[in-house]
Write a structure and sequence with these properties.
The complex is a heterodimer of chains A (490) and B (923). In chain A, strand 16 and strand 17 form a beta hairpin. Chain A has 490 residues and is of the alpha/beta class. Chain A has a single domain, classed as Alkaline Phosphatase, subunit A (3-Layer(aba) Sandwich), CATH 3.40.720.10. Helices cover 41% and strands 11% of the residues of chain B. Chain B is built from 29 helices and 21 strands. In chain B, helix 14 packs antiparallel against helix 15 and helix 17 packs across helix 18. Classes of the chains: A alpha/beta (490), B alpha+beta (923). At the A-B interface, helix 4, helix 6, helix 7, strand 10 and strand 17 of A face helix 12, helix 20, strand 20, helix 22 and helix 24 of B.
């Protein structure tokens, strides 16, 4: 098979070479092996760089911010109103349960929260959210997300990578691979304070895609996750003087140029040091929040202890997409600690649903509302897609056998809610539906493969054409599945 | 594909009663037309799932089980009660329609339409003819090609390479110089740079066999095994924890690593190594090899598993799939995993073959219990020896000890002197209390599943001070060690560390945790562990300094225990290793579309049909067939196995395989650049009895191995060649190759004289694999501060050392024989800013400056070049370095001590050279 590799420099001059290979964070990745071959990108150099690539068709969103809610927020207590649950409260469900369940489940349980209609569009939303109604008309509710795995690990991996068993490239990596990125001095895919559990690094990894497309964690990935105030890229700071770094760089170049070789791989490596030097200046600027006004900080809730951390993460996300980063993930993914309830994985309220969800919603409500408002005010929302959701929803039934005697809900995979906002989706819109109990999807099923197909569609990529050959076959984010949810497109 | 593989015979059309027919026509047919025919009817090009609903369904089982809706797959699918098969896919049918279908099935599914015969062959014909693809054809005995420059050919291997080049009209470059050759070979065989002495010896040695003897020296070095075992660990996707959804530690995985190092160092024949990895549990220990062959089967257990999968059947299928996929890629160069759901699209591997192999692995026990992999005792040469010599004595002593223990337990149960407490009655603690699942008869404490330090504290009132033996009763299938504190002091660092055979009440046993002095008044006893805890039922204190019968019994027990421990210390106990054993022997039913919920016909256990040169007889019914599988794999007529390893060796020596896709020899992999050479090498593997050391010698004693990387005069040579073979597929020069992550780190340790030489041992030395920021810091510190060879660092799949991952360490989740090399600025940042590199530079600079033999800066710099680059300095280089030193020192205005200024400048110079291409690339 034909392969496109670096030509030797006898064909082109060094200058030409450097012009050809657009420079990026990891831009000059020179793949010295023949393990892979180009499919979506035109050549191996392109696959291995972050150079901006042509989308398959015009993009509705240029950038993506994914607000990941680890643990599984309850859809029937947030956005998917089910009055029938009040009528059937305490009664056994009149339908057959799924074959594979996570735990023993009890009777149906009414939501502890009232729902009301919000925005001009009249979206149902529970009282858990006090700020979000302000942007209701920008939200596109996806009520029929389904077909994930019943356990956190499998479900989190499937949400991020499309596969619940094998290690596969994450969606951010696929998008980076498909589109490259606009700012060559920053990574294309940044994951703010990610969680290390339930697949951990694999949830933002590139798997077999070229490694420059892997998510770069900002802040030590931790569990419980590190504070956003400590978020920084690793090995970026040197402590040395600028002049000293220049001298080191100059010596490296001098030694490199003295060699009689004209191997492009060696040239590329020299160039990567120059890039690293530039990055050392660009990255700290992007993360420097002191440039923001007090009003902006208030908008994100950074002035209040309860919302400061998630607010800071959201504000970092805005600064990064503003600077051209292609995919930013913001994680509400740590340990829920609150007085009166046992420590608990963030949204995973098998017990203490009421208290737990109240604390969680309060932490994210203002920051994410502020993010959408801020993006809008800066004209970024129209081509930035915001995606919100967890790895699954929660059962409309109460968790059975709960020794703690305090009600909660179990994992639920057959119909739950995520939402999108901005970049090309219909605002104030509800897509899909679950049955009257919020158990099974009954309308416009959206499997995770469909979600991924739709996400790629919004950024201008055809999920059936974005492929990468590995181990003898073409891989896709959507495997052999996936259907674009045309109904949500604005 | 509900039933494509079943055979439906033409049956007499049942009498369809009129009422039933009417019901069908009024309720069912319209619904089928409206909701199903878009995909499931003849007019569609390819009926989805090969299921047609436009024919009589009455007899189509198990789609329809007349009279029984709950058993009917169709009803199951439209109810949406099964998350794996829900139809129609977009939205659930209206409730009334579902009820209609249920009623109809209850009526017996009357259907007036004509049934269609669907017959599929039980043995599918191969889609692809294996004889048409090179890799499945028998290995040839190629004749040596004729070449025009016989002087170039040192070895038959060179003839194959040169013949290609001559045919293309490319002239190979000349041989590299001796410095370059030694550095290349030393890194290649040992993963380390040559020392100054080694360089000087080699330069001095003018004998014709100087290189040959250097190769022998390097192959005999233990560092050889440490280097080449790491290559194999890439292929074996080695890891020290599970990774994936639940990253539990594999605390004994390291035995497989050490065993692999031993296999390479002892040059165990590769066919034997394969057999041990697939079926080591089924072959006896010869007492000569360092490890019992059982250890090799860790290969099958090491894979990443989804441990929290709630569907136990799927979990089994996924584990088997991971094994088949790894075995395929690692040993056969085939992507067998592709045939899980459908016949392989490109290669002659029908789904039936996949399930024929799956039967072998389903008949093998990999997991001890749900979510818990199997660990088994395995002998080393020493422990086997010890067992033979003093085994009986120890067995006797153990039996008497247990008897004594039983007596004491009886006494203790009745004695009023003993203080006993149920574990759940703690004063303070954060442990979970479990009274249902694991303790129907007893209450236990254990961890809560949250990653934390688990503890329980008990207040004990004593009238008088005294010494007591602490015993704890617990159950543990795997070791979950913790600590005991008494009165705020750690008194036992390694408590509750035993295993008892399971988690359940029947596995509860008393374990002694040592005698301690308790004070009069209140004592605080604390039991803690992290992140997990055994199931602790109760504890008790037995007075050990009294005169009662119990105390005396205890004292004699303690004396006896000391004797036994001393005896055991003299002998080596067997290891506990990850390994498989034979399970329930069974054939597997074909999983339609890979789903364990849609089972087809039973497939007898067997090997691949595509390999035609070896006869396939039925596998015995009393064993899994793994040993037979290994024999089939290593049969000289298997055209893949020897080719695959020959190609891997070529890849590791030359940077690119003859088949570039080392894990895929199938039709979708790359074709060999030198097919005759590959066959020649495969035959050599057999001829040399699978000795890898012998193969190394064959590959290194060649002209092609000694080529220069760059022409002496770039301008005269490259124009022509770069057009004909710019990527050097045909070996007219040697490739510049960046060192692997391990080689860079190990070289830094070696040149800074910090390497801690210790072979083997080193279990999972990181205390925790948990993932709190503190744990991650601890892991990072552990990695950064370790000075052992890289192969001995644990591979935490959830947190591989970033120094390694940044420099393209193989992903431990996949079988990888062909690491990629990327060049990204994060690597530059690492080399410039990592504390580890800075430390190595600082040490080298300090050593250089302390060397009183060195008189000038030029000599010092030459010394540095020898250490780092394996060659003397060049004059231009020296000039640049000295300029750097001057300029750098000038920036150090804040440093007042002139010696410190010199040290800092030299350290900066060293670190820059460590980052340079000359250091991290092989010429």
């Amino acid at each position: 098979m034909a392969h496109s590799h670096f030509p030797t420099t006898s064909e082109i001059s060094r200058r030409q070479l450097l012009d050809r290979i657009a420079i990026g964070f990891g831009g000059l990745a020179a793949n010295s092996m023949l393990a892979t071959e180009p499919r979506a990108a035109n050549s191996l150099e392109q696959q291995n760089s972050l150079i901006v690539r042509q989308s398959h068709f015009p993009m509705r969103a240029k950038r993506v911010i994914f607000l990941f809610m680890q643990g599984g927020p309850s859809h029937v207590d947030t956005f998917d109103e089910k009055p029938a649950l009040s009528r059937y409260d305490g009664k056994p469900p009149p339908f057959k349960r799924t074959r594979v369940q996570f735990g023993d489940r009890g009777d149906l349980m009414a939501s502890p929260w009232k729902f009301r209609r919000v925005g001009e569009s009249g979206l149902p939303m529970s009282e858990l959210f006090q700020h979000l109604p302000a942007v209701a008309d920008d939200l596109c509710m996806l009520h029929s997300v389904c077909e994930t795995n019943v356990a956190h690990g499998g479900a989190t991996m499937k949400l991020h990578t499309g596969d619940e068993v094998f290690v596969r490239p994450s969606m951010g990596s696929w998008i980076s691979y498909g589109l490259g990125t606009e700012n060559q001095n920053l990574p294309s895919y940044i994951n703010i304070c990610p969680s290390s559990i339930h697949g951990g690094v694999n949830n933002w990894g590139a798997a077999f895609l070229p490694s420059i497309h892997q998510g770069v964690p900002l802040g030590t990935p931790g569990y419980p996750n590190a504070n956003a105030s400590e978020a920084r890229f690793k090995y970026l700071s040197t402590g040395g003087l600028r002049k000293q770094e220049q001298l080191r760089l100059q010596l490296l170049n001098e030694l490199g140029r003295q060699r009689s070789t004209q191997d492009a791989q060696l040239e590329a490596r020299l160039q990567s040091f120059e890039l690293a030097f530039r990055m050392q200046m660009a990255a700290p600027e992007a993360l420097e929040l002191s440039q923001e006004t007090a009003a902006t900080e208030r908008l994100y809730g950074m002035d209040e202890a309860n919302t400061a951390n998630f607010g800071r993460q959201c504000l970092l996300a805005r600064r990064l997409v503003e600077r051209g980063v292609r995919f930013v993930q913001v994680n509400h993914a740590g340990t829920l600690k609150s007085e009166g309830i046992p420590t608990n994985e963030q949204w995973d309220q098998h017990a203490y649903l009421k208290k737990g969800h109240e604390v969680n919603a309060a932490q994210i409500d203002k920051p994410m509302t502020g993010l959408i408002q801020d993006l809008k005010a800066r004209g970024l929302l129209e081509d930035t897609l915001v995606l919100w959701g967890g790895e699954f929803g929660r059962t409309p039934t109460v968790q059975a056998g709960n020794s703690m005697d305090i009600v909660g809900r179990d994992h639920h995979t057959d119909g739950f809610t995520m939402w999108m906002a901005g970049g090309g989706v219909r605002g104030g819109f509800r897509y899909g539906a679950t049955d009257e109990f919020g158990y099974y999807t009954i309308e416009d099923r959206m499997t995770l493969h469909d979600l991924h197909a739709t996400l790629l569609h919004l950024v201008g990529l055809d999920h059936t054409r974005l492929t990468y050959q590995y181990a003898g076959r073409d891989f896709r984010l959507t495997d052999v599945y996936g259907k674009v949810a045309q109904g949500i497109l604005a | 594909m509900l039933n494509s593989c079943a055979i439906f015979l033409m049956l007499p059309i049942a009498e369809v009663d009129v009422a039933g027919s009417e019901y069908f026509e009024s309720r069912i047919r319209p619904a089928l037309v409206k909701y199903c025919f878009e995909c499931h009817a003849d007019k569609t090009d390819e009926p989805a799932g090969e299921l047609r609903l436009d024919r009589s369904l009455t007899e189509v089982r198990p789609l329809i089980v007349p009279g029984n809706p709950d058993e009917s797959q169709l009803i199951d699918a439209i109810r949406y009660s099964n998350s794996d098969l829900q139809m129609p896919p977009n939205a659930r049918l209206p409730a009334q329609v579902i009820r209609d279908f249920e009623t109809w099935v209850r009526m017996g599914a009357p259907d007036p339409r004509t049934p269609t015969t669907v017959v599929t062959s039980p043995l599918p014909v191969l889609r692809v003819d294996p004889e048409k693809h090179w890799a499945f054809q028998a290995i040839q005995q190629p004749d040596l090609p004729s070449i025009h420059q016989p002087s170039w050919g040192q070895s038959p291997l060179d003839f194959f390479v040169l013949a290609k080049l001559e045919a293309l009209g490319i002239e190979p470059l000349s041989a590299c110089n001796k410095n370059t050759l030694l550095r290349r070979t030393t890194f290649d065989l040992t993963g380390l740079p040559p020392t100054r002495t080694e360089i000087e010896d080699f330069l001095r040695d003018q004998a014709p066999d100087a290189f040959e003897r250097s190769v022998d020296r390097l192959l005999a070095s233990p560092a050889y095994g440490e280097r080449w075992a790491r290559h194999w660990l890439d292929v074996a996707r080695y890891g020290d924890c599970n990774g994936a959804d639940e990253s539990r530690p594999f605390p004994v995985a390291y035995h497989f690593r050490n065993y692999t190092i031993e296999v390479f160092n002892q040059d165990i024949p590769f066919d034997r190594f394969i057999t041990e990895q697939l079926a080591g549990d089924l072959i006896p220990h010869d007492g000569i090899n360092a490890y019992e062959p059982l250890v090799g089967t860790g290969f099958l257990v090491l894979g990443t598993k989804i441990l929290a999968e709630q569907d136990a059947v799927k979990m089994d299928a996924d584990i088997v799939d991971e094994q088949i996929d790894t075995v395929g890629r690692a040993l056969l160069g085939l992507t067998l995993g592709c045939a899980r759901c459908h016949d392989h699209k490109f290669d002659p591997i029908p789904t039936a073959d996949y399930y024929a192999l799956a039967g072998i692995f389903h008949s093998t026990k990999t997991m001890a219990s749900y979510g818990q992999w199997l660990e088994r005792p395995a002998h080393t040469k020493e422990s086997l020896h010890a067992k033979e010599h003093s085994g009986d004595l120890i067995t006797q002593k153990r039996a008497s000890f247990q008897e004594l223990q039983r007596e004491m337990n009886q006494l203790a149960e009745q004695s009023s002197e003993v203080i006993t407490r149920d574990a759940e009655n703690f004063e303070r603690g954060n442990v979970g209390i479990e009274t249902t699942n694991y303790g129907k008869d007893i209450g236990i404490i254990g961890d809560t599943g949250v990653s934390q330090l688990n503890f329980a504290e008990y207040d004990i009132e004593l009238k008088t001070a005294g010494s007591y033996l602490l015993q704890i009763r617990y159950a543990a299938a795997t070791a979950r060690p913790g600590r005991v504190h008494l009165n705020q002091k750690v008194v036992q660092e390694s408590a509750i560390s035993q295993t008892s055979g399971g988690w359940h009440p029947k596995d509860q046993n008393w374990f002694s945790e040592g005698s301690y002095d308790f004070q009069a008044g209140t004592n605080c006893l604390r039991i803690e562990s992290e992140p997990s805890m055994p199931h602790i039922d109760k504890w008790r204190l037995i007075p050990s300094d009294g005169n009662s019968g119990l105390s005396q019994k205890l004292q004699s027990l303690q004396r006896f225990s000391k004797e036994l421990a001393a005896l055991e210390m003299q002998t080596k106990p067997p290891l506990q290793v990850m390994a498989v054993t034979e399970g329930t022997i069974q054939n597997t039913r074909l999983h339609q579309r890979g789903s364990h919920l849609r089972l087809g016909e039973e497939i007898p256990r067997q090997f691949l049909q595509a390999i035609t040169g070896i006869s396939r007889s039925a596998l015995p019914g009393d064993r899994s067939g793994r040993l037979e599988f290994a024999r089939w794999m290593t049969n000289p007529h298997n055209p893949l196995t020897s080719r695959v390893i020959a190609n891997r060796l070529w890849r590791w020596h030359f940077g690119r395989g003859i088949v570039a896709t080392t894990e895929n020899f199938g039709a979708n992999g790359q074709r060999p650049t030198h097919p005759e050479l590959l066959d020649f090498l495969a035959q050599e593997v057999l001829r040399r009895n699978w000795s890898l050391k012998s193969m190394h010698r064959a590959m290194l004693q060649t002209s092609v191995y000694r080529l220069r990387t760059d022409p002496q005069d770039a301008h005269t040579h490259s124009t022509d060649v770069s057009i004909k073979d710019p990527q050097n597929h045909f070996h007219w020069r040697a490739d510049h190759r960046r060192l692997e992550a391990e080689a860079i780190r190990d070289a830094l340790l070696l040149v800074s004289q910090q390497m801690e030489w210790r072979i083997g041992a080193a279990p999972l030395t990181i205390k925790t694999i948990a993932l709190s920021p503190e744990d991650l810091d601890q892991q990072q510190n552990f990695y950064d501060e370790s000075r052992r060879r890289t192969i001995y660092l644990p591979v935490l799949r959830t947190n591989v050392y970033d120094f390694l991952t940044l420099l393209d360490f193989a992903n431990p989740d996949f079988s990888t024989g062909n690491r990629v090399t990327t060049t990204v600025p994060t690597q530059a940042l690492l080399m410039m800013n990592s504390p580890f590199v800075a430390n190595c530079a600082q040490v080298v600079a300090t050593n250089l400056l302390l060397d009183s033999q060195i008189s000038t800066e030029e000599v010092r710099f030459n010394d540095l070049c020898l250490r780092l680059f394996g060659r003397p300095s060049r004059s231009q280089e020296t000039a640049a370095a000295l300029r750097f030193l001057t300029n750098y020192t000038a920036t150090l205005t804040a440093v007042t001590d002139p010696q410190e200024r010199v040290l800092q400048s030299w350290a900066a110079l060293c670190q820059t050279l460590m980052a340079s291409n000359d250091f991290v690339f092989l010429d």
